[in-house]
């Protein structure tokens, strides 16, 4: 049986580690860039550039040029994407 103090310590340690694993907004924004055309269906990070939807996870098909995901800076084109949205016609 686990002693209450051990369980409390384990819970506190787990919570602390979980917080450390989440990047801060400032850090994430500085190290990431939007990459268009690489998101898989249902795995986009936010609204598409064409205005079809306004939420994450709503991409209907893989590699739609209007859908984007955040990637590490400098890796977008290596993954087959573009850092700018497609031009509007």
TrEMBL record:
One of the Pfam families matching this protein, by short name: DUF2282
Keyword Signal assigned: yes
Signal sequence, renumbered to the chain: 1-28
Keywords carried by this UniProt record: Signal
Record protein name field: DUF2282 domain-containing protein
Originating organism: Phenylobacterium ferrooxidans
Organism lineage string: Bacteria, Pseudomonadati, Pseudomonadota, Alphaproteobacteria, Caulobacterales
């Amino acid at each position: 049986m686990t002693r209450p103090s051990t369980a409390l310590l384990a819970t506190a340690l787990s919570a602390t580690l979980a917080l450390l694993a989440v990047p801060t907004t400032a850090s994430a924004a500085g190290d990431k860039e939007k990459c268009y055309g690489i998101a898989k269906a249902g795995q986009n990070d936010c609204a598409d550039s064409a205005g079809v939807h306004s939420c994450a996870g709503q991409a209907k098909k893989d590699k739609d040029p209007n859908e984007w995901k955040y990637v590490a800076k400098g890796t977008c084109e290596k993954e087959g994407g573009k850092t700018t949205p497609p031009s509007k016609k």
